[in-house]
């Protein structure tokens, strides 16, 4: 979806914003009653949001591992 649609590009969203929007997308899809095009658009957005959440979590995991690794090398 283009930024001119008033929707923030996923690449600019933090973890919490991605997660919250993903929850909203899932709820909309679960409620049903949407036409096929809208459902597909929401599903695609949800997939991208989930991917971005995973990227945020992987980055956080790397930072923790790096911090723990530097703590261990300081102790040696």
Automatic annotation (TrEMBL):
Coiled coil: none annotated. GO terms for cellular component: cytosol; exodeoxyribonuclease VII complex. It is found in: Cytoplasm. One of its GO terms (biological process) is DNA catabolic process. One of its GO terms (molecular function) is exodeoxyribonuclease VII activity. Its EC number is 3.1.11.6. Its main location: cytoplasm. It catalyses: Exonucleolytic cleavage in either 5'- to 3'- or 3'- to 5'-direction to yield nucleoside 5'-phosphates. It is an enzyme of class 3 (hydrolase). The keyword Hydrolase applies. It comes from the Bacteria. Keywords: Cytoplasm, Exonuclease, Hydrolase, Nuclease. Bidirectionally degrades single-stranded DNA into large acid-insoluble oligonucleotides, which are then degraded further into small acid-soluble oligonucleotides. Belongs to the XseB family. NCBIfam families: PRK00977.1-3, xseB. Heterooligomer composed of large and small subunits. This is Exodeoxyribonuclease 7 small subunit. The lineage of its organism: Bacteria, Bacillati, Actinomycetota, Actinomycetes, Mycobacteriales.
